[in-house]
Amino acid sequence: MASMPSPAEILYQEKHISDNKVPNIIATNAICFPIACTAVLLRFVSRRSSKIKYEADDWLIVAGLLFTLGILICDCVGLRFGSGKHLILLKDPAGFAQVLISAEVIYNFAMFTIKASILYLYKRVFFVSRNFVIILWVVGIFVACYSITQVFAAIFQCMPIDSNWNPLVKHYCINTDIGATIIAAFNVLTDFAILILPMPLLYALRKPTKQKIQIMGMFLLGGFVCFASIYRCIVIHELSHADPSWSDVPVNIWTMVELCTAIASACLPTMRPLFSRATGKFGSGSGESGMKTSPGSDPSLNLQQTPSDPSQSRKFAHIGVLGDLEHGQTREVSPSEKI
Q: Where found in the cell (predicted)?
């Protein structure tokens, strides 16, 4: 909740009355959101061109994109109220405060749906063992719990609720700075967990080292999301409750960067058929034989079915498919290979 600025703070704002971060907000949204939209579009084009049915992870990423659109709308409405300029220039302080709370709520729904999409994709593509699925569920439930907690914290950070935009009302508020920092830290933690989870499985694939590096590289591009989450956590500490319309701009910017890069990173692994066609390389060579995989596996990722260590072949019998599946060549997995 915004607090009343002190006389010194008002004097500072008057001296810097011409300060303007509106172009920063507009530029960030104009660059990032189209990238996220393009990534989701290419994801569906890749699915359709590979004749893969749409799954829950595809629709979850669409939900994440729609929630991100909600953040963009909040930014636009905030600009109308005076976001990007100092507090003394706010046209509608109450409306601005309501927009901030709405953005906090939408942000948590957006991050949850994006991460849920990635985890569900892992569940389909990297179905290895019951333990791995349990890990995915644990991470997913953890993300859901702190997301729901933050939604309630954003709405009820001050009681009564209307005191969030009317500081003259007698109220009681929780320490939102600590809460926002904790949630941001949880986001960073789960970002790294989601990034690292598939790495051992990808490394174990029976693929040439170059191809394994390429596949792992697609997943590791999500590392920029970790950077965005960390930087967003840092700028949260710079918030000024006496001048939120100005100090909140870096948080707005890095929120959009974080969400859009998360969406793009979640879509990249599913675009491999498009990349292969664009470069004239259709996954594995003609000398490899394809395999028919378990239900729910994802041919678009073009992952080898067995690991480099033969002793682990049974454990990894249900991972991905060969690139030759794109050419219609399949063979049944023998009973001895099934888990």
A: Membrane
- CA dist list (Å): 313 to 90, 207, 283: 64, 13, 21
Residue 316 confidence (pLDDT) above 50: no
d(CA 173, CA 237): 18
Report the distance separating Cα 233 and Cα 220, nearest Å: 21
C-alpha radius of gyration, the chain, whole number = 23
Residues 6+ apart with CB under 8 A from 240: 246, 247
Structure tokens at 203: 């490394």
pTM of the predicted model, to two decimals? 0.79
Rounded Cα distance, 279 and 14, in Å = 57
Q: What is the pLDDT of residues 179-195, one digit of tens each?
A: 777 888 888 899 999 98
Mean pLDDT (whole number) for 324-336:
31
Query: Residue 338's CB: how many other CB atoms inside 10 A?
Result: 10
CB 181 within 8 A of CB 221: no
Distance CA 88, CA 328 (A): 66
pLDDT at 330 over 50: no
Other CB atoms within 10 A of residue 117 CB: 25
DSSP string across 179-194: HHHHHHHHHHHHHHHH
What is the pLDDT, as a whole number, of residue 294? Answer: 45
- Phi and psi, residue 327, nearest 5°: -95, 5
CA 115 – CA 47 distance, rounded (Å): 20
Look at residue 280 in the predicted model and tell me its pLDDT: 63
**What distance in Å separates the CA atoms of residue 125 and residue 297, rounded to the nearest whole number?**
5
Q: Is 279 exposed, middle or buried (0-12, 13-18, 19+ CB in 10 A)?
A: exposed
CA-nearest of 218, 235, 239, 240 to 301 is 218
Residue 55, pLDDT above cutoff 70: yes
Q: Token pair 């333990």 is at which residue?
A: 131
Beta-ladder partners of 158: 173
CB 190 within 8 A of CB 142: yes
The answer, yes or no, to whether residue 65 has pLDDT greater than 60, is yes
